[in-house]
Amino acid sequence: MNTPPHTEPEPGTPATHGPDEPLDLAGIGIGPFNLSLAALAHPLTSLRTAFYDLHPAFHWHPGLLIDGATLQVPFLADLVTLADPTSPWSFLNYLKTRERLFPFYFAERFHIHRAEYDAYCRWVSENLPTLHFGHHIDAVRWNHERSLFEVDFTQLGAEGDAEALGRSYARNLVLGIGTAPHIPIPLRPLTEAPAVPVIHSADYLDHRERLLAADHLTVIGAGQSGAEIFLDQLRARPAGRENLHWLARTPAFAPMEYSKLGLEHFTPDYTRYFHALPERVRDELLPAQWQLHKGIDHDTLAAIHDELYRRTLDGGWPATTLTPGVRVRTAGRVGTTKVELHLEHTQQGSRSRLTTDAVVLATGYRERRPDTLLAALDPYLRRDASERPRIDEHHRLVLDPAITATGCHIYVQNAERHTHGVGTPDLGLAAWRSATILNSLTNSTAYPLPTRTAFTTFGLAHPTPQRTTPIPRQSSHLVPRH
Question: Are 478 and 1 spatial neighbours (Cβ–Cβ below 8 Å)?
Answer without folding.
Answer: yes
